[in-house]
Design brief:
By secondary structure, this protein is of the alpha/beta class. The protein contains 10 helices and 15 strands. The protein has an 8-stranded mixed beta sheet with strand order 11-10-7-12-6-13-15-14, sandwiched between helices. The termini are far apart.
């Protein structure tokens, strides 16, 4: 089965109103209820954890008589579990909805399966309408479901010979203004920006996303990891968002807590020690290496120990893009997956 013209228009509207809901622990979802002749009867969207799901929000605006034989157009497969709210699939069945059109399958082991429940109840189900647009809308949330944690980008700037700073520790500025502006744009696309206490104490960064001197509309939440205290007058404490401080060094636990707060994209900008810790723990999904045509020499490497003792243990990357930025060059990469480079010999850690 395919969607009708009225259903396609309804899906476009459902995707638009889904954006009214907050990004966070739950996905942004929109729903539109159509009459049997294709007229719009009601709309709804999810307003956050603990509130009615989009389908139920829309259903609540109609009488049983209006709902009989109606079609529900939803951006995500109606859920099939009871959490803070009941299963939307069952709510649609109980309402007498005849047909359901949705864009993307729910990836949850517990919450998925709504389409099967609907079909078992005799409801017509159409899957995949405007799936690409829905993927764009909640792609970050879907990534969190797949990974079980937020998506992590690890960024550093380095000289051509792999140094993050000169021998005296000075590092401002290795890269030029174009590269720094690119970093700020990418900060603004993240939900959280993560540094270590060493960076806070050495550089006193504001951890804001800026366009020149002006703050960009979206600001990532600042996160500081490390046991050393952050000074009371540190610039990060004047951030538009209240900083989050983690005194432990368990990065998996930190990411789990950030996920629980609804954070989906993490931007790690914390210097060689923290960047290396994320890489060593295999917690980097994207790598951004800004390379400047300058030579520094000395001991201040951009990365420290990442658990590689032999060439066979190397962290191999696929470069998705080489991006010139003024006189600098950005390598945007991701870790090699089995499907990326089958000709590159790899082995499990510790294998002899």
């Amino acid at each position: 089965m395919t969607a009708t013209a009225a259903e396609r228009m309804a899906m476009a509207h459902a995707l638009a109103i889904a954006r009214r809901g907050p990004r966070g622990v739950n996905p942004q979802v929109g729903a539109v209820i159509l009459s049997p002749d294709g007229s719009v009867l009601a709309e709804g969207w999810h307003r956050g954890a603990g509130t009615p799901h989009a389908e139920v929000d829309a259903l609540s605006k109609l009488t049983p008589a209006e709902l009989r034989g109606a079609t529900a157009v939803v951006t995500l497969e109606p859920c099939n579990h009871t959490g803070r709210t009941g299963p939307c699939a069952q709510a649609l069945i109980d309402a007498g909805v005849r047909r359901v059109v949705y864009a993307l399958d729910d990836p949850g082991v517990v919450s998925g399966g709504g389409a099967e429940r609907l079909r078992d109840a005799g409801v017509d189900v159409v899957v995949g309408e405007q799936a690409e647009a829905a993927q764009e809308l909640i792609g970050d949330w879907l990534t969190v479901q797949r990974l079980g944690r937020p998506h992590v980008t690890v960024k550093w700037a380095q000289s051509l010979d792999g140094r993050a700073a000169a021998a005296d520790g000075s590092s401002q500025w290795i890269t030029g203004p174009e590269a720094r502006a690119d970093v700020h744009r990418r900060r603004a696309a993240a939900d959280a920006i993560v540094v270590g206490t060493g960076t806070v104490l050495a550089d006193d960064p504001a951890l804001t996303a800026r366009d020149g001197a002006d703050l960009l509309p979206h600001q990532p939440i600042p996160v500081v990891i490390g046991s050393r205290p952050t000074p009371a007058d540190a610039a990060v404490r004047r951030h538009p968002h209240e900083p989050l401080f983690y005194t432990g060094h368990d990065l998996t636990a930190v990411l789990a807590d950030l996920r629980g707060r609804g954070i989906q994209r993490v931007f790690v900008e914390g210097g060689p020690t923290l960047a290396s810790a994320f890489l060593a723990a295999d917690l980097a999904d994207t790598v951004l290496a800004y390379i400047a045509p300058v030579l520094l020499g000395g001991p201040r490497l951009a990365l420290t120990d990442i658990g590689v003792s032999a060439i066979g243990d190397a962290h191999r990357l696929v470069v998705d893009e080489w991006l010139p930025l003024g006189s600098d060059l950005l390598a945007l990469a991701h870790p090699v997956e089995p499907t990326d480079a089958p000709d590159i010999p790899t082995r499990e850690r510790g294998e002899s």
